[in-house]
Amino acid sequence: MEILFPKKERTPLGFCDGLDKIFVGFGNKDERGCQPPKYHASYAPYYPIHKAASMGDIDTVKSFVERGAFSMEQIDWKYRTALHFACVYGHPEVVTFLVESSCEISPKDIKDATPLIKAAQCRQTECLDILLKHGADPNIMDCRDNTALHYAVYNGDVETAAKLLEYKANIEAINENKITPLLLALKQNKEKMAEFLINNGANAKTCDFLGRSTLMYAVRCGSELIIKLLLQRDIDTFKQDAFGWTAKRYAVESKSKVYCMKHLTLTNYPLSKPSLPTTEVTDSLRSEGVEKSDKKPSKPENTEKEACPMVTTFNDIILNY
């Protein structure tokens, strides 16, 4: 029944309707057409050297190479090499033998994925470390412009991400959806990864291809920690996306839990209008029958508040919306 009569979306494209409402992974430019990456599902070896590499049979791999039975760069119909299979299945001793035997270190398969990308995708940190030490380029992109760092972020693998950044991986790499690693971490609700990237210099003011900011994604995730980090970096709280929505409106319409966090402050701009000074009633008002009050304006009870800068909380946002 839900397919025949879908619920009305509260926010554009269901962005803040709940983390389970829409998949926002890598994928195509159509937000609803995004598909998660595949791991071992379609990575079955065919040639004997590929089977040996995927099983970690280092002696057989050496025998094939030394006898010339198979080249180290032997590819199958998907352009995968023994190095690809060794990285996917996590066999560092095979990886070490191949790279020290001067095999091509960054060959691309049919989806333009290098062994380094496969190692990051499959969480094979030891294999990834070997490749980086032997000069593998961490900024090569696959067919969807994702780098190894994108895959590490997708997995929430902080250790792999740290290793890639150590070898000069581009923290601002953009894929076909105009998604940086930081935006991807927020899309996938990887709070620790997002915190790690922000603390390592990721641009907190970046936006996706629909103009949605990091603050909007943090509101979507309901992440108190990330909202704090973003507000500390003077992020524009009134930034509008392609639909004309702000982070404030997403918080209101989605009934996000962040709107009741009283300790989170938005100090960029005041959201309430200043009170007008008290003036005497004019003669025109008297002619209309309005009597002038003889009472003097009362003195504010707490004068200390006037000296303090205006601070608006998410709770105030809801009241002023």
From TrEMBL:
Residues 283-307 have a biased composition (Basic and acidic residues). InterPro entries: Ankyrin_repeat_domain, Ankyrin_rpt, Ankyrin_rpt-contain_sf. It comes from the Eukaryota. SUPFAM superfamilies: Ankyrin repeat. ANK repeats lie at residues 78-110, 111-143, 144-176, 177-209, 210-242. Residues 276-307 are annotated as: Disordered. Transmembrane segments: none annotated. Keywords: ANK repeat. It holds the Pfam family Ank. PANTHER family: ANKYRIN REPEAT DOMAIN 36-RELATED, RIKEN CDNA 4932414N04 GENE. This is Ankyrin repeat domain-containing protein 19 isoform X2. The lineage of its organism: Eukaryota, Metazoa, Chordata, Craniata, Vertebrata.
